[in-house]
Amino acid sequence: MRVLVLGGDGFCGWPTSLHLSDEGHEVVIVDNLSRRNIDNELEVNSLTPISSMGTRIAAWKEVSGTQLVFNRFDVAEHYHRLLSLLEEWRPDVVVHFAEQRAAPYSMKSSWHKRYTVSNNLNATNNLLAAIVESGLDVHVVHLGTMGVYGYGTAGMKIPEGYLRVKLETDEGETIEQEILYPPNPGSIYHLTKTQDQLLFAFYAKNDKLRITDLHQGIVWGTQTEQTSRDERLINRFDYDGDYGTVLNRFLMQAAVNYPLTVHGTGGQTRAFIHIQDTVRCIELAISDPPARGERVRILNQMTETHRVRDLAKLVSNLTGAEINYVDNPRNEDAENDLFVENRQLLKLGLEPITLANGLLREVTEIAQKYSHRCDLDKIPCRSLWRTPATS
């Protein structure tokens, strides 16, 4: 198939592009390189050395014999370039990663909030509007987030997108229907993902677009089978307080003998998935598209759940690292449970990589190897969700 990957230079987009190319798909990447520019803004680099896009694409041609095509433009701003690319190349699938992906970054300031909203919502709407205008029958696969649900539980497994409810009319009649599971975003980033859901629902209903929305858990790990073939292909490893996901931060901190920073009590339960499973899930979603006219297909893309303090203890037991409990910058409950339904991807053939089987390799092959590139000053999270207390 012809696959257009929007945001194909990013943490999930790059390994997905390589994986799909390796599976025999024709892959075109679109990216405005904004993530690299954010590195400049934050004055912190990936723990792993990231090559230029030209070097990355040349290296992939060398090791695979396959050519990736790269287009540099901003999907959120350059609508007609996107439309022209769709009309000229006529992809079968568009994989949509072209969104600012960090919750802490989205909460840094009013500018960061406005940027995240403008970038994420315009990128999504531009894509959907362009597909409609092109007249093409394109399957959109979007990387969403488990964070649209919030982090609480009603004593049940969070379903995959839809909740069956019963409504009683004034006449006493009971009506059953399914609605989108009520969102409860915890940041501006997560808020944009809940708005994505409504955009998808509208375009699927009104214009019969075929859309799969993958609500992904926190990604851990760095390499996939493809990115590990050559150091020029290596994937990002973000460890800073804005972009570093919790488990990768712990792994890096352990590698440099920096106490593991657990926010609050560490009682927050999160859903997790390995980066190799992420790219595999994208492939599975592409291979099983919804029918035209079908409602948005929503899958919970995660493989296991853990409390943050339990993760810290697991990494500490593996490495001997100390644990440091610090003030939580987020506005969230100190403790929560999380139960998630994820049967659809398992039925499609996903065989998960578990934390127990993969953590030590990450510590030794990535975090320790590149620990000399770490800037310790960038580890603490300085983006606050909550309003500082006043005296």
Report what the structure shows.
The structure is a single chain. The protein has helices at residues 13-22, 34-42, 53-64, 79-89, 103-106, 110-134, 188-207, 246-255, 275-287, 308-319, 343-348, 355-367; strands spanning 2-6, 26-30, 69-71, 93-96, 139-145, 162-168, 174-180, 210-216, 218-220, 260-263, 269-274, 297-301, 304-307, 323-326. It is an alpha/beta fold and 391 residues long. It has a domain at 2-237 and 274-300 and 342-350: Rossmann fold (3-Layer(aba) Sandwich), CATH 3.40.50.
What is the secondary structure topology, with strand pairs?
Elements: E1 2-6, H1 13-22, E2 26-30, H2 34-42, H3 53-64, E3 69-71, H4 79-89, E4 93-96, H5 103-106, H6 110-134, E5 139-145, E6 162-168, E7 174-180, H7 188-207, E8 210-216, E9 218-220, H8 246-255, E10 260-263, E11 269-274, H9 275-287, E12 297-301, E13 304-307, H10 308-319, E14 323-326, H11 343-348, H12 355-367
What do we call the CATH topology of the domain at 2-237 and 274-300 and 342-350?
A: Rossmann fold
Biggest beta-sheet profile: 7 strands, parallel
The residue-averaged pLDDT reads 91
Shape: globular
Given the structure, what is the number of helices? 12
N-to-C CA distance: 61 Å
Strand content: 15-25%
SSE class: alpha/beta
